[in-house]
Amino acid sequence: MRRSYGGDHDLDETWLSDGWEPVLRRWLHDAMAASVVEPNAMVLATVDADGCPATRTVLCKGIAPDGVTFYTNYGSAKAIQLQQNPNASVTFAWPLIGRQVTLRGRVERVSRHTTELYWATRPRGSQLGAWASHQSQPIGSRAELEQALTDAAARFAGQPIPVPPNWGGMLLRPASVEFWQGRESRLHNRIRVTAADGRWIAERLQP
Are 168 and 112 a contacting pair, CB within 8 Å? Predict the structure, then answer.
């Protein structure tokens, strides 16, 4: 189960002279152009109260110079873990184009205004789902979950659906960002940028 990498231009430190965000955006665009399924999916790693790591895939809904944003129920397992320990990591993995990006840093909630702006772009079905699901909590059956969705639809029939009070955005502010690019003979390109004194320092890592 091996594959060869390469064929595109070698990742170079100079690409990151303006920071991590432009390159991440370009690589995300390349993943979209290559028809990668869910190109904005990223694996979020957190640590629970016992120090055990937990990972799950979430969708990146914003990229800006201050970090990447995703949305969740604030009562979910990941949100509770981030409240206890705000340090986290997210990884975008695009095997189809032989690239990966990992951001590590602290996570904080976004403003309610930012959440409301994003909420207005969500499909109505997704909005209803956020009201129906008590994320990460046990439920007896699929039928109960579907009934909760039906109840939510009836509750908000014929009217705009407000943002649930315990739902919103989370922003990961990266202290370091590592770019990985697959190369032949497993001599992959790895370049990490780290925040220092208001600027980003790039260093190449051995594969």
Answer: yes
Q: Which residues are catalytic?
A: 186
The single residue listed with the structure tokens 């694996």 is: 43
The model's pTM is 0.93
Architecture of the domain made up of 13-123+165-205: Roll (2.30)
d(C-alpha 19, C-alpha 193), whole Å = 8
In this model, does residue 3 exceed pLDDT 80? no
What angle separates helix 124-132 from helix 142-155, to the nearest 10 degrees? 120
Q: What is the largest CA-CA distance in the chain?
A: 60
Give 19-29 pLDDT, tens digit per residue.
999 999 999 99
Tens-digit pLDDT profile for residues 177-204: 999 999 999 999 999 999 888 889 999 9
Residues ≥6 apart with Cβ < 8 Å to 105: 67, 87, 88, 172, 173, 174, 175, 176
Length of the chain counted residue by residue: 207
Which residues are CB-neighbours of 55 under 8 A, at least 6 positions away? 43, 44, 45, 46
Residue 177 CA, distance from chain mean position: 13
